[in-house]
Amino acid sequence: MAVTQAERGERTGIAPMARSAPFGRFLAWLLLPPAGLYLLVFALVLLPSARFERWGPTKWGPILQFAFDTRDDADVLVYGDSSAFLGMDPRVVNAALHVRSVVLPNTVGSLPITGQMSLRRYLTQNRPPRLLVLYFTAWDLNYETPASTRGFFEGEEMLLRNGSAAQIGDFARHHPLEFLAFPIRMNSMLGAHLVETVLRGEDRERQTAEALGHVDYTEPYPPLTAPCTLPEADVREHAEDAVQADVRRYTTAQTKVVIYLAPMPDCKGAETIRREAGARHMAPAVLPAEMFASDGLFAHPEPRAVPEVSALFIDFLRRQMNTPGTPAEPVQSR
């Protein structure tokens, strides 16, 4: 005759639920720490905290946050993708042209999420610039419609720290998996990088502010080597809806808005891009391949190339502002 679970419990004197209670408590304690760590990331990112951004685990967080916080009135405001803040040094521009220029750091991963959030905040809390330069690599001009969600992590951090509840909720509805994975990706960056930052005493916010938004590229990639070939998708990319909308949106009686195409490496496909882009804008400069990092993006100048990239930008500004200026000693890369 079959014996029920209740009858077995009566014979042993142990109720089935009582026997499972220790396992339930064990499971709860096992899951509690990772669940707490998961939720803590949201709390830390949402709460304004200079110390979190200074010592936080993300490399780009304190740098991108500069674009939202700076109160530096600029004559020339530069807004674009990472080719802008990694390539052009405003200190060199200012010394040569006797103007005040500032670059608002963004990346091609943050821009599809934050859009013009940092630019709009800058314009509301600072004097309007004489010139707003939209500084992008030729294939990033339509930055609001990325081909994939790779790199969204940078934008999510900035959105959570600086966006409204409505903006955060809208992103969560349209990208639920990305939103839920954010704390896990943030926690995965804890470790050696955080310890190294604390031990070195680096204040990345202060360093970015002192360089007026410029940061030297220090990712562990060797220089690009020739011969090289630009991705076919980049060569074919000519859409520029986002920047053209920005030109119309931000042009005022006080502010002139222009588009500047960042220098690119001398790889196969560069002349095609230069010819196509040059039909609509000033053609981008083509520099030796070894002046760029081999990170697969073909857009980030090595620190030693920053003076030349800045000099090219100075020539562009002279034509835009009719500013004579005088040559200046380049600022040495840190």
Describe the structure in your own words:
This protein is of the alpha/beta class and 334 residues long. It has helices spanning 5-12, 16-46, 50-55, 61-69, 82-87, 90-97, 111-114, 117-125, 152-162, 165-174, 176-188, 192-200, 204-210, 232-236, 241-250, 270-278, 306-321, and strands at 76-80, 101-104, 131-136, 256-261, 264-265, 286-287. It has one domain (35-321). Helices cover 51% and strands 7% of the residues. The strands form 2 sheets. Strands 2-1-3-4 form a 4-stranded parallel sheet, sandwiched between helices. The protein has a two-stranded parallel sheet with strand order 5-6. Helix 2 (16-46) crosses helix 11 and helix 4 packs across helix 9 (152-162). The protein is globular. The termini are far apart. The model is unreliable at 324-334 (pLDDT under 50).
